Amino acid sequence: MKLDDVYVPQDLPGRKITDPQRKGLLKFYRYFTEALLMEKFNGYTAEQFKGNAKRAKQEEGTRSHLKTKDLTPDEVREARDRVDNPALQVFYTLTGYSGARMKHLYEMFAAREKGEDLKIEHINGIIRVDVRSISAGTKNEAYFYFPAEMEKAIRTYRNPYGIDYIGKQIAKSGTSDRPVNESSLRKWNVNILLDHMDKDFANAIQGRAPQGVGVQHYFDLAGKAAKYYPEALSELQKGLPIPDWMKKGAWDTPVSKPGPRKGSPQRGGVKKKQA
């Protein structure tokens, strides 16, 4: 479906547009402010255009292009509820908010178990954890980003099982038609990020190496990611509301050493504390 010309913000409210068209408009408005450094377009600011683009109505049936792995917020939330282990619900939640590779999220906590401090920073009302020590090659993590409400959970969490077992347990939360795993959670995360920021900043959040000389050397990727991530939070929270017990770090984790364990769980169970 072709989108009619848009000259002023008033052209957008009430108009039916597809989800890809909306994303394209938002990317265009970011481009002329961040790349072209233009303050106004046809006499209006980018924020005025972006606000009305978000208010435009989504054309019915425009989600028919969804593939099997494109999760909805309801599916993300319901799958987490089916994970029969509070500590793994925390790990699932941290994966969804950060868009991190599960192995690297696991390594972040494993490094703490080996005596390294978690470098948690507060910025723009969110928190980010410096994970440059686990970055290598094209898997170019610098920071994992989270809502500030998850700080206690991050400080309290310990890996209860090996990463292979964790991945298998989380994968059980989905169905054959609607799988929930690292790949589908990362895709869910990045699709939301792309509604609010340029792909280079979304890729930086998910730990992909920047492409192109300009991006590598002239863009403040960490600064831009920290600036725009808060804008995506309200949408991420629709799929991953944070329960009070998780905000408080209120669960028991078995005491054992981390490491490259595979397959089998460690001793002990993990039970949610009663309020």
Topology of helices and strands:
Blueprint: E1 16-17, H1 19-34, E2 40-41, E3 44-45, H2 46-55, E4 57-58, H3 73-82, H4 86-98, H5 102-113, E5 120-123, E6 126-130, E7 143-147, H6 151-156, H7 163-171, H8 182-193, H9 199-206, H10 213-218, H11 221-239, H12 244-247
Parallel strand pairs: 1-4
Antiparallel strand pairs: 2-3, 5-6, 6-7
Helix pairs in contact: 1-2, 3-11, 4-8, 9-11
What does this molecule look like?
With 275 residues, this protein is mainly alpha-helical. It folds into two domains: 9-65, no CATH class; 73-247, hpI Integrase, Chain A (Orthogonal Bundle), CATH 1.10.443.10. The chain has twelve helices and seven strands. The protein has helices spanning 19-34, 46-55, 73-82, 86-98, 102-113, 151-156, 163-171, 182-193, 199-206, 213-218, 221-239, 244-247; strands spanning 16-17, 40-41, 44-45, 57-58, 120-123, 126-130, 143-147. Strand 5 (120-123) and strand 6 (126-130) form a beta hairpin. It starts with 15 loop residues before the first strand and ends in a 28-residue tail after the last helix.
